Amino acid sequence: MAATESEHRIGTPIPVPPDFPVHWDDDAEPALLWSWDDFHAPLPPTPMTVSVGEFTRAGRTQANKDNGNYRPGSLSKVINGYPYSASTAPPMTDDEKSARERSLDRLIESVRANWDDQWLPELKAFLDEMKAVDYSSLSAAELWANVERVLNRHSRHWYIHNMVVTPVIGQSNRLEKICSRLLDSSGSSEKVPAHILLHGAETLTVLSINELDRLADAARNEPEVRRALERDIPSCDTRKALETSEQGRIWLHALDRYLHDFGYRCTGFDLSFPTWVEDQSFVFQVIRSMLADVESGSPANAARSKALDHERDALLEKVREAGAGRPELLEEFNRAYELGQQLWPLKEDHSHYIDQASTAVVRIAIAEVGRRLEASGAIAHADDVWYLDLDEAKAALIADTPHGIKELIAIRRADRERLSKLTPPKHMGTFPPDHDMAGNQGSATESGETLRGTAASKGQATGIARVVLSPDDFHKVRKGDVLVCRSTAPMWTPLFRVISALVSESGGILSHPAVVAREFNLPAVIGVQRATSLVVDGQPVTVSGDDGLVHTG
């Protein structure tokens, strides 16, 4: 590694946990600050997910080069199955910062038009085409050709992802800074997060939940449908029960339309977790919980949304009052706010098409490979395919099955199961001299029974803690429970209709758990390090989204 590493050598070494040993490849590695990507990889990824991730990474890297965000010196390392990253890049110069701001200006001005005129039509056309493919009718060669096609397009989609996310987050950050300048000038030190000001935007995430609410409302008003859904039985049996009545068949038709529009999403962070269209049990589980909630349904949701609208309007009035004596700054705010309103919906909408649907069509194609390999006897179970990489799966499908492949799968599966039980530290290596040590105390106890994090969504709620590490744990969640997790993603959003509060180990104030919790008026505390280890599943907890405290006593 380069000489710039000398800047990282003088700092505070981070103790290596005894149950999380690390092997450094050279003497320079432990002098860097390595950070675990706990938001995107709360559990060790399967080999297939890692292999597909190369296509994702290629698209994102090219986007960062094109949008001015790329800086050489980024390093990655897998430690005990978990992805860590570090950087050897020196601090940006003033010229580099200015160049990045100019690039961001151009992106902010062009992203909405690019999305509407080019990227969205492109995404829709390809995804609609892939949803119509009957993989079971394809030959082995044709099937793999489709796998390669969806992977190449998936890389392109993640190029679009970064070309969208960079200006959307950049503009929201600029809006917050302008608000701070206005409020500081009026003697107020209040911080106004952009997601509060921009509440109310119509997004596909909100639409997907509203449509799920309508399905629950329709079931609530039809006794035969409700009785079939309230039975805790396998999803295939639920469908059979619904098909016995006319109203049940009508409701199933509406469900199938919903799944076509919103069901192309994996339930977890790994390709090994099925999509909603493949496994409908999660959708039935959420609707069942919604039916049990007397306060659920469209009227209650409208009331929650109205309360958030009121909070937004009050903050807007306060900001504009603060700018009454500074017309130029107020005009700057108005322009930034107008741009923010235009761009903010893209934060969720791009995820619907890329993070969710594009990933889903990749998974569905590879899942068919798994079924073919099981049928041929190459692997014992169809879901063993996730413990192969792309090259191994291709060889097994269209050439001779690699020797010892079943034994290799068994070893990899056992290793991942063992590593999944570990609690990785957020950071390893060495904190640089200027690192904010206080920012790494999210798990610090104020007493023996209180944890501190970042207040992400106001309010207070008490409920039974449900520690959820993956969708395999979703069955534990009941109405009124407190969800305690490493991170959430858009695929988990329906759980927000069931739980009473959220505690997340990862995520920032503009992360998915923070933003969606606010939309649902759900108390939330994020950044509580080691929460899934410190909170005992089944114990009562109180979550305060006002001060960022989680009381476990």
Q: Spatial order of the strands in the main sheet?
A: 6-7-14-13-9-10-11-12-8
SSE order, one letter for each helix or strand: HEEHEEHHHHHHHHHHHHEEEEEEEHEHEE
For the record, the count of structural domains works out to 3
Low-confidence stretches: 1-9, 438-444
**Average pLDDT score:** 89
Report the sheet-strand fraction. 5-15%
Largest sheet: 9 strands, mixed
Alpha-carbon distance between the two ends:
48 Å
Number of E-state strands: 14
Helix content: 40-55%
The rough form would be described as globular
Query: How many distinct helices?
Result: 16
Rg to the nearest angstrom?
24 Å
Structural class: alpha+beta
SSE blueprint:
Blueprint: H1 6-9, E1 12-13, E2 33-36, H2 47-66, E3 74-79, E4 82-87, H3 94-131, H4 140-185, H5 194-197, H6 204-220, H7 223-230, H8 235-242, H9 246-262, H10 281-291, H11 298-322, H12 327-376, H13 390-398, H14 405-419, E5 427-431, E6 445-447, E7 450-452, E8 454-457, E9 460-468, E10 482-485, E11 501-504, H15 512-519, E12 524-526, H16 531-534, E13 540-544, E14 549-551
Parallel strand pairs: 9-10, 10-11, 11-12
Antiparallel strand pairs: 1-5, 2-4, 2-5, 3-4, 6-7, 7-14, 8-12, 9-13, 13-14
